[in-house]
Design a protein that fits this description.
heterodimer, A: Cytochrome Bc1 Complex, Chain D, domain 2, B: mainly beta, Immunoglobulin-like, three-stranded antiparallel β-sheet, 0% helix
Chain lengths: 258, 110
C-alpha cells in the first residue's frame, strides 16, 4: 500500500514538472498561511511564541562584551531597535572583503571574528540563532528587500538553477513542490511556497529553533539527496534567490512552524 | 538557575479590578529531555525534565502541577485566578537535576 502511494506522488509530480513557473507576485503566501490557526496564534502572540525565549536571549547578547576587542554589538551599532530596523530584510548582501554574498548569520560571524576578535559561533548554535532571531525581529512587518546590487546577479542565477535542479533518489527539485504543487499535500503535510521571511523559526517538530539552512537540509534529506554542509556556497546562493522570490513580503521573524 | 533551566517568559495583566478572573501564562526554556532519545552514539540521553511547577500568591498556592516526559520542550502553562487583592506572585519550576528557577511578578488590584 505504501509503495503504491509513493508512485502516485511521483507520477503527479512528473506531470506537474512540465509546467514549472514562478508564482505570480500577488499569489504568494507566507508559510504562516499554511499552518493551523493554533500555531499561527502562537506565532502572533509574543507571550506564547516559544521563539521569543531565544529572541530575548539575543537581546541580552546584543549588549554583552565579547572577544579580544571586548566590544558588544551595541558598542558599535547602538540600540538594535533603531540600528537593526530593516537590516535582516536586506540579507543576504554582498560582502566586499569576502567577494561573495553573506547571509545574516554569516554577517554576525564576520562581526564576531573581524570586529570583536572573538571565535565565530558554530552553525545552528543557540547563540547564533538567538542573535539572528533578535536582529531579524527588528525587521518584523517590513518588506523583504533584497539589495539591488549587480554583484549579486550571478549568485542569484546560480541559486535559481539549484532551485530547479532535480536532486536525490526521489529526483525532485525544490520548484516541483514549492512552485508547482504548493497548497497540495505531501503525505499529510500541506506544501507551502517556501518563503524565507520568518527565519530563524521555532519548529514544533524540532522542539527548538533552526535556521533556513537547517530547513534546506531537512528538505534535501527528505528527497534523499546528500545535504550540503552548513555555510555552503550553494545554500547562500539559494538564500539570495529566495530573498528575491519573496521580495516585498513582510518579515515575520521569529516564526513558528509545525 | 542551573543546568538546562533557561529564561522564563511570564504574562499577566499589571492591573486588575477586584474580583476579576485573570489569565496567567508562564513559559520556561527547557529541553525536556525525555530519557527515551538516543544520542549520536546510540546511548540514551538521561532524562531531564521540569517535573514540578508551582505558582503562589502571597504565599498561598494558586496553581501547581506535576509534569511528565510527554510535555514538549519549553513548557507553556496557562491558568486563571481571581484577583482579590494586590500582591506578589511567585513562580517556581523544578527539574530532574534539582535545579530551581524562581520568578516574581506584582499585580495591582483596584
Amino acid at each position: 500500500m505504501r509503495r503504491a502511494g509513493g508512485f502516485v506522488v511521483l507520477g503527479s509530480a512528473c506531470l506537474a514538472s512540465l509546467a514549472s513557473a514562478e508564482i505570480p507576485l500577488d499569489q504568494r503566501k507566507s508559510g504562516a498561511d499554511f499552518i493551523s490557526a493554533a500555531t499561527r496564534a502562537m506565532q502572533e502572540d509574543d507571550t506564547a511564541n516559544p521563539a521569543m525565549l531565544s529572541t530575548l536571549d539575543g537581546e541580552s547578547m546584543w549588549n554583552e562584551k565579547a572577544g579580544g576587542a571586548q566590544k558588544s554589538c551595541g558598542d558599535c551599532h547602538g540600540p538594535a531597535p533603531k540600528s537593526m530596523k530593516g537590516v535582516a530584510a536586506r540579507y543576504p548582501a554582498y560582502n566586499v572583503a569576502r567577494q561573495a554574498p553573506v547571509d545574516l548569520s554569516g554577517q554576525i560571524n564576520a562581526c564576531r571574528t573581524d570586529q570583536q576578535k572573538a571565535e565565530a559561533f558554530k552553525p545552528e548554535s543557540a547563540q547564533l540563532l538567538a542573535l539572528s532571531a533578535y536582529i531579524g525581529s527588528q525587521s518584523r512587518g517590513l518588506p523583504v528587500s533584497p539589495p539591488d546590487d549587480a554583484r549579486l546577479a550571478s549568485f542569484r542565477a546560480r541559486g535559481e538553477a539549484l532551485w530547479s535542479q532535480r536532486i536525490g533518489q526521489l529526483n525532485f527539485s525544490c520548484a516541483q513542490c514549492h512552485d508547482d504543487n504548493w497548497g497540495k499535500r505531501l503525505g499529510s503535510a500541506l506544501i507551502p511556497q517556501a518563503h524565507p521571511n520568518a527565519y530563524p523559526i521555532y519548529r514544533l517538530d524540532w522542539q527548538g529553533m533552526g535556521s533556513l539552512q537547517r530547513r534546506f537540509r531537512n528538505c534535501m534529506s527528505g528527497v534523499r539527496a546528500e545535504a550540503y554542509p552548513y555555510g555552503a556556497q550553494e545554500f547562500i546562493d539559494l538564500e539570495v534567490f529566495l530573498a528575491h522570490r519573496a521580495r516585498g513580503m513582510p518579515v515575520e521573524t521569529p516564526g513558528v512552524r509545525p | 538557575m542551573a543546568g538546562n533551566m533557561g529564561r522564563a517568559l511570564i504574562s499577566l495583566p499589571a492591573k486588575a479590578k477586584r474580583g476579576d478572573v485573570i489569565e496567567i501564562r508562564a513559559m520556561i526554556a527547557h529541553p525536556m529531555e525525555t530519557g527515551f532519545r538516543p544520542d549520536s552514539q546510540g546511548r540514551l540521553v538521561a532524562r531531564d525534565i521540569v517535573n514540578r511547577f508551582e505558582c503562589l500568591f502571597e504565599g498561598e498556592q494558586v496553581f501547581a502541577c506535576d509534569l511528565f516526559p510527554a510535555m514538549s520542550a519549553n513548557p507553556y502553562l496557562s491558568f486563571t485566578m481571581r484577583a482579590d487583592m494586590s500582591g506578589e506572585l511567585v513562580f517556581r519550576w523544578r527539574d530532574d537535576s534539582g535545579a530551581l528557577s524562581e520568578e516574581k511578578r506584582r499585580i495591582e488590584v483596584e
